[in-house]
Amino acid sequence: MEETISLKELFGVIRKRMGLIVLITLAAVLVSALISYFVLTPVYQASTQLLVNQKESKQTVYNPNEIQTNLQLVNTYNEIIKSPVILDKVREELDLSISTGVLTSKITVSNANESQVLNLSVQDTDPYQAADIANKTAEVFQRDIKSIMNVDNVTILSKATVGDKVSPIKPKPLLNIAIALVIGLMAGVGLAFLFEYLDNTIKNEQDIETLLDLPVLGSIANIEEPKESKGKEKSVRGESLGA
């Protein structure tokens, strides 16, 4: 019985402060939508793939030791691709006005476990520039790795392209709005219970019993006079004043 009353009180507080909860939730959704659509700059991504493997030879069977060597080189290549020795040349050949550090932050290199394929991704506010940076980085790396590591085992599998209908990878307005909706709802409910907790006014008999720890023996109801009797009283007063 005690648990049922507590649940009723909780729902009563939510119902009482529903206006506040709705207002805070709508405000959070509105702010999130405005920031997502009008403040944040769209960011696009372009990707290319590189294969770490020796050039074709007369051998018809792969050498397991050679494959294992290529796999070990993948981690090293991840660092070399993003090093200044590669990116400085990318900046010069594309005539980029950004620093090498900024260019490094735009590039991500990854590969699946036990895979000889490197995925080179570039994020930029311009989708065409993102594709140019990805392709030029792959091109410079394939060309210069021969002199850096004294090996010729990198092949470009696919080049970055820009489609007709390219969409940014971030921000994601719908996701941001959904998150803002949940956060606004939680904040509204939290504030509703906070205001209810800080409200010390006595509203009913139950509050008196809780505060004084005494039973309520009776209460005086507020009885309003009928409208007809009020009208008659006014007319009588008017006649008496006229007399």
Automatic annotation (TrEMBL):
Keyword Transmembrane part of the UniProt annotation: yes
One term of GO molecular function: protein tyrosine kinase activity
Polysaccharide chain length determinant N-terminal domain boundaries: 3-94
This protein's UniProt keywords: Cell membrane, Membrane, Transmembrane, Transmembrane helix
InterPro entries for this protein: Bact_polysacc_biosynth/exp (IPR050445), GNVR (IPR032807), LPS_length_determ_N (IPR003856)
Subcellular location(s) of the protein: Cell membrane
GO cellular component, one term: plasma membrane
A Pfam cross-reference name: Wzz
Domain Tyrosine-protein kinase G-rich: 142-194
Predominant localisation class: membrane
Keyword Coiled coil belongs to the record: no
Membrane topology: Multi-pass membrane protein
Transmembrane feature ranges: 20-40, 174-195
Family to which this protein belongs: Belongs to the CpsC/CapA family.
Protein name: Capsular biosynthesis protein
Species for this entry: Peribacillus deserti
